[in-house]
Amino acid sequence: MITVLLADDEHLIRGALASLLTLEDDITVVAQAATGDEALAMARAHRPDVAVLDLQMPGLDGVAVADQLRGAVPGCATMIVTSHARAGALKRALSAGVRGFVPKTVSAQQLAQIIRTVHTGGRYVDQELAADAIAAGESPLTPREAELLSYAEDGAPVADIAARASLTSGTVRNYLSSAAMKLGAENRHVAARIAREHGWL
């Protein structure tokens, strides 16, 4: 029996998926979570064989959860399911050890088969998502620029970002200005949105 953790902040989708997967003879859903932090806690408590993670969740996103699970629950294979595929997210996911990257448009039967594939050490990446990732290319941002843009995403003032990153306000302005210029954005907020849309944050 393959034990599965489902993490999705949309209760209806998560519940429906759990019900459909229980119809499979060899799969059982042992835990469900609505946030990234909850997914980590549930994975530690239940030690599932496979974690099916929504890409965008409150708190930690699916890729961040997958990355932490590598150390916290090393026997757990991870896969990302998303309705908002961003090109750069695939690369981040693969770097985090994710074995499956799937759009939410797959059927329950397909998802069950993909769960079996990743459980046995295989990998599944949706072809369209992979093509988008190749077309989008590499992020033009340095790791520090991406980090500071992610802090700017929620509208935080420069002083707060500087305190969080242990940098001076002037240094933060320089990094954010450089990132905005690279992305052709008029300000840091637009730059953060562009970077997020490309999966570079």
Automatic annotation (TrEMBL):
Pfam families hit by this protein: GerE, Response_reg
Signal peptide span: none
CDD domains documented for this protein: LuxR_C_like
GO function terms (MF aspect): DNA binding
Positions carrying 4-aspartylphosphate: D54
Gene3D superfamilies recorded: 3.40.50.2300, Winged helix-like DNA-binding domain superfamily/Winged helix DNA-binding domain
GO annotation (BP), single: phosphorelay signal transduction system
Transmembrane segments: none
Occurrences of domain HTH luxR-type (ranges): 134-199
Domain Response regulatory span(s) in chain numbering: 3-119
Keyword list, A-Z: DNA-binding, Phosphoprotein
InterPro entries in UniProt: CheY-like_superfamily, Sig_transdc_resp-reg_C-effctor, Sig_transdc_resp-reg_receiver, Tscrpt_reg_LuxR_C, WalR-like, WH-like_DNA-bd_sf
Name by which UniProt lists this protein: DNA-binding response regulator
Source organism of this protein record: Streptomyces sp. gb1(2016)
